[in-house]
Amino acid sequence: MYLKKALWSEGLISEDDESSSSTAVSELVSSLNKQRLYREITLALRTGLRDARAEFSFLRVRGLRNLLKFLRSVAESESTISLFSHSQSIPELQVVPILFQNSLRTSINDSVPNLDSIFTVEPLKITSPSTDTEVALALRVLEGCCLLHRESTEFAHKLKAIEVLMDILSSRGVLERAACLDALVSIMLDSSPNQMPTEVPHSPSPSP
């Protein structure tokens, strides 16, 4: 989705500029325009996140592409960046957790379910694995969120993003590794917790 100025607002704003007596009208137009932009932002997020959490990879890819286009539009204006940052304080609109719960989920979440879950009354939800394209797109969306919204790096830290991204670097292909390096830089930028080295447990050396 692309965020554009309302056609009706441009005409009113130009008229307001010609007359200092219409300050109240100008403020009203500005307020209405801000409300319209915020509605478009929340709508774009809800639509993109709905697809990004889908069971099938092709739907998640579509959602990630829409989110990436949306973030590029947001980056064009300080006002839209501010509105996007405000939207990320609402749990159901937060992008980073959805990325790690779906497209960037670890292999542990893809393990075969036990017999107890197979024989339950509830139907078993089967989610298709993430494709190379999906992972690369999710990493680009992660990069954009962290660059536009500093608190997204905190979300990433809580979700152990460094460990997940290091696993992608060691196990995925060239397409994902290139996007992964850019995402690593974005989540470590101005983020002390993400800059801390990951502790790796050392096994005791064998006795002679």
TrEMBL record:
Q: Which organism is it from?
A: Aquilegia coerulea (Rocky mountain columbine)
Q: Which SUPFAM superfamilies match?
A: ARM repeat
Q: Which domain of life is it from?
A: Eukaryota
Among InterPro entries, the record links this protein to: ARM-type_fold, Cell_div_Cdc14
- What are the top taxonomic ranks of the organism? Eukaryota, Viridiplantae, Streptophyta, Embryophyta, Tracheophyta
Know the name of this protein? Uncharacterized protein
